[in-house]
Amino acid sequence: MIKLIALYKTPNEPAAFDSHYENVHTPLVKKIPGLRKLEVARITGAPIGEAQHYLIAEMYFDDQDSMQRSLSSPEGKATARDLASFAGTIVTMFFAEVQEI
Fold first, then answer.
1. Which domain covers residue 70, as residue numbers?
2. Total domain count, the chain
3. Is 45 left (phi over 0), alpha (psi -120 to 50) or beta?
4. In degrees to the nearest 10, what's the CA dihedral of 4, 11, 23, 43?
5. 4 domain residue, yes or no
6. What's 38's domain CATH number?
């Protein structure tokens, strides 16, 4: 299994970000074909100092090829366009191979 991770810095307007994320972006993500699971975690603190991030979203897919097909689908492209429109400057994205230990 592989996951796409979106790591968001704290937005300038958290309430507006939350509203868009919950009411517009998340419904788009859920329409991506091949998406197996979506986990969203709001950062509540850090062991030392202030947390540098606000939210983490993890989207799970069967494997790299299925993830690429999913992200290239019309639904995946619509989700990417939306992401760029509201969080393009505060999000970092990366892939990770999931291992059960």
1. 13-47+66-92
2. 1
3. left
4. 60
5. no
6. 3.30.70.100
Q: Inform me whether the pLDDT recorded for 35 exceeds 90.
A: yes
∠ CA 22-94-13 to the nearest 5 degrees?
Answer: 35
pLDDT (mean) for 16-41: 98
**pTM over the 0.85 mark:** yes
pLDDT attached to residue 36: 98
Is residue 86 in a domain? yes
Per the CB < 8 A criterion, the answer to whether 54 and 43 are in contact is: yes
Q: Tokens 């919950």 belong to which residue?
A: 22
Phi/psi region, residue 72 (left: phi>0; alpha: psi -120 to 50; beta: rest), is: alpha
Structure tokens at 24: 């517009």
Q: What are phi and psi of 20, to 5 degrees?
A: -65, -45
In the structure, what pLDDT confidence band is assigned to residue 50 with cuts at 50, 70 and 90?
confident
* Location of structure tokens 């970092």: 92
Residue 98 within a domain: no
